[in-house]
Amino acid sequence: MGSILNPVEGNSFVDLAAFRDEDVFVDKTDFIAKISANINKNKRLFAVTRPRRFGKTVTADMLLAYYSKAYAGQDIFAGLKITNEEYKVSYAKHLNKYDVIYIDMNSIRNDYIAYAKDEDQHVKGVTTIVDYLQYSIIEELKENEMYAELLDKSRNVGKLNLSSALEVIRTYTKEKFILIMDEWDLIYREYRNDTDLQKSFIDFLSGLFKGKKGQASFALAYLTGILPIKKYNSQSALNDFNEYNMLAPGKFACYFGFTDNEVAEIAKSFAGSSDCKISLQQLKEWYEGYKIKGIDIYNPNSVVNAVSNNECISYWSGTVSNEEVVRLINMNFDGVRDDILDLIAGGRVIFDCSNFENDMVTIKSKDDVFCLLVCLGYLGCEDNGGNYRLAYVPNREIRTVLTSIVKLQSWYNSMPIIERSEELFAAIQALDSSKTAEVIAKIHNSPNVSLLSYNREDALVFCVIAGLMWRTERDYECFRELQSGKGSADLIYAPRNNASLPILLIEFKYDTSAEDAMNQIKEKEYFSRYRDGDYPNDVILIGLNYDSKTKEHQCLIEKLG
Hints:
Layout: H1 12-18, H2 30-36, E1 45-49, H3 56-67, H4 88-94, E2 100-104, H5 105-117, H6 129-142, H7 145-153, H8 162-173, E3 177-182, H9 186-190, H10 195-209, H11 211-215, E4 218-225, E5 231-232, E6 235-236, E7 242-244, H12 260-271, H13 280-287, E8 290-292, E9 295-297, H14 300-309, H15 323-331, H16 336-344, E10 349-352, H17 366-376, E11 380-383, E12 388-392, H18 396-407, H19 416-429, H20 433-445, H21 457-472, E13 476-484, E14 487-495, E15 503-510, H22 514-523, H23 528-531, E16 539-547, E17 552-559
Parallel strand pairs: 1-4, 1-7, 2-3, 3-4, 15-16
Antiparallel strand pairs: 5-6, 8-9, 10-12, 11-12, 13-14, 14-15, 16-17
């Protein structure tokens, strides 16, 4: 048992399972059965990529604890889903039956850096991290007495690479390995400009898995990372792998991230705690929104932090550098900056993912920018048919991060969407109904907003929220369908501790009139909570209507007397 062959130290899943009655624990062990169903079959090579903090490592560690001989006799999975009756046969068949080669690329990189600095450790022919990786695995194989004897007897002992070493062992023992590689794409992220190193790494992997002969040493292979498998000339260099990524997530959506039901259970379990007052609605607002194969997925790391710390804030910014996002936005391919601002305000952008080469350097178009931002988790996407996807900002957490990023850019204040937001707010403050309707019409006709089906009040509500977002996001809280007076107001903007700013109370209509909207505000007395409450602020009443026949936006604005 070393750090690569059947490692046991620092297994995050084992630690989590041991304290599952005390900490947040979501049982996804039935994933083991889904993977085990493919052992020794043609489709036994898997690559599952997701953004950081989506449970990739803990899942890899779970597979290690289940398959590895080093864990034999440990009662790690007792009472978990994988031990249920429906998985009984499969569970017993594969439990701790394999030698697992577990490659944590972050650890390999750290070890290689130390190796490169210490000349006394240098080995002839080991000059790159890829050389070091292969050398390290073979050396650990040799720590097994039987494997060492077999390798020493090999005619090509001085020329062994990992693929041939594994073939020698399999030929004599008739046993196959399981390979798990965490952060498979590290070389493409950390050595992004070293194309020779990247080529040697993909050649190393191709040598392990190319064709039936290469795959014969493995009962199963499982890669995880952030980026999809690298493409060369629009083809994957590892085309035998079943790949599940954020652009094409496949059937494993519910196993990476938390689902609605899982988060509801977490919120329920913490609801009785005096230390946690986080509601399910807050968790949904902040961390839901990655729609993968029709399933709403939450960032699990953020949910756990929120309920543990009793605070919904952005935990995302501490997990990955924002420098990459800044670089991508500032490339400004085909107006990417405008698109990013529209996305933050709630818009949608269609992009084509067919030519993305799955790295962080070969970025040639706006489509590539959106592909990479989706893979990194800064955008969500929905299938829009064929190779087309619909990008959006998934939740408040990501919106907070992206907003902070763009506000630091030198071009921020001069962007048309920012000026438009200021223009709309100023028109409302001035009680200028005509100007307000004019600006809302501009927003409606902007490219990304026009993707909406503009056939209901919700579309009009979106236009106003998108328009006001940049002017109000720091100073206001925005409430939809807030109970007030004798009903629920469509939209209310309430200032955060600033008596000089007006409260905005907005009612929407579709194919009626602005007068109807204004009359409803008054008849239902939506303003009563602010007139009768402890609010010194002015209250501005806004009635809006969209006429689908004339395509006109109509507006009435009054200040409450």
